[in-house]
Amino acid sequence: MSHTLHRRGSVESLKDDIVFLMMPAHRYNDVDVPQAELGARLRRFMELGMEKGCICIGNASTGNEYTLGGEQGVLDSTVEGATVHCVFDDQDKAIEFMKALKEEDLGLSVVVSGLFDMLGECCRKSGLTPHTVEYSLGVWGSTSQLPPEPVLEINTMCGHGMVSVGRIQDVIDKIQKGRMTCEEGGRELGKTCTCGIFNWKRAGEILQRITGAT
Amino acid sequence: MYIDQEACVGCGLCVPYCPVGAISVSGRKAVIDADACVECSCCRRSRVCRKDAICQEELKMPRAVRSVMSDVFTIFEDTGVSGRGTEEMKTNEVTGRFKPGWVGMALEAGRPIAAATFRQVQEIAVALAGTGLVEFETCNPITQMMKDNRTGYFREDILDERVYSAILEFSVPVERLAEVLALCKEIAAKTSTVFSLDVSSVTLGGQDQAVREIMEGAGFSVRPNGKVNLGLGRPLHQF
């Protein structure tokens, strides 16, 4: 699914939000590449992300750093067939990661989500050429059911919707009562995004905007 | 999901964790509204309950489709992908699923937050199929739950099952994209849930830019952020 696609927010807010995904092509790579080798390549992708300064990693089949007890837990849980992620909050670090991916040539599909203009620049600087793009045309239908935009910005950073509106409001409440900082709130909310694609730093910034706290 | 009423102490900590608001506290005990629950397991997986009172019963059809569509860790056998998703454009450089001259579209009913019943999803699917303009992706859990993927009708036993979201995936020739987008606007005016909409295109020959112009010409605002397949998968599909 397009779980990293429909992230909401302004260009200013999204500029520090870059999510990478790697997965084997079902019925292609799982036929051509030995299982142990597939797992090793997926783990290497995340190791490279960590070396280049990503803020979190995750595995859509097994869990995130919170549920698996840290980065090593995510790496250890990763075997063939997984979809794995690295989240960056900095364009320059993302470019270095893309250069490393090109250099290592792991042979599995990589998709990056972010601002198109920024991704174009990242591709140019890393020597990569976009193959296919996916555009978001936003949300349609009975949109009056949706919460205020800043809450939606946080909620849509987990494309599976596992960062609930109730939990976001709960965290806002705790910040306003001085029981949690915005950064702690961002980290707390990321715990239920089991794929590990939730940008907890950006969430902290949005929480700052909502609450006026630090 | 259900709450073990003997173990529950009614603290209510689990209530805000539910993505669809299905948990409440009544009579000093937390309860899950089974009709509203989409079986995503978010409440249990959050480990918020100090008494381990959040339980998962064995799910049987038709209720099991809720878990297939809503629980991130449930793998649909035929797609091999965890959650309700598919590989769509993620592996397109290898699979060649979306070819030059065509676009891939995904209409994700229920996302974000509103959720959807299969009856709501069916209303949308039938409207899309009725035009003869779309071909539903066969390697997709939703398509495989249809009685007939040419009509968009689903198995009747699942119509009242509620899921966090359901992705209708289909391909459209580029020259018919504007017509399908107009249809999506009509569907948006009628549906009682929400849907997120996306369009995928290869970049070959500048098709992605041509597609963007068609979408804007059809009155759609293209989001400034999206996804890019970096073409690193091997072997490369030869179009």
Give the percentage of residues in beta strands of chain B: 15-25%
Biggest interface, CB < 8 A: A-B, 81 and 79 residues
Main β-sheet of chain A, in a few words? Answer: 5 strands, antiparallel
Q: Superfamily at the CATH H level of the largest domain in chain A?
A: Histidine kinase CheA-like, P2 response regulator-binding domain
* Rg measurement of chain A, Å: 17 Å
Strand order of the largest sheet of chain A: 3-2-4-1-5
Number of helices in the DSSP assignment of chain B: 7
pLDDT averaged over residues of chain B: 94
Described by its quaternary structure, the protein is heterodimer
Radius of gyration of chain B: 20 Å
Question: Structural class of the helix and strand makeup of chain B?
Answer: alpha+beta
Q: How much helical structure, as a percent, in the residues of chain B?
A: 10-25%
In total, how many beta strands of chain B?
Answer: 15
Question: What's the CATH topology label of the largest domain in chain A?
Answer: Alpha-Beta Plaits
Secondary-structure element pattern of chain B, one letter each: EEEHEHEEHEEHEHEEEEHEHE
Judging from the principal axes of the Cα atoms, what is the shape of chain A? globular
Strand content of chain A: 15-25%
- Helix/strand structural class of chain A: alpha+beta
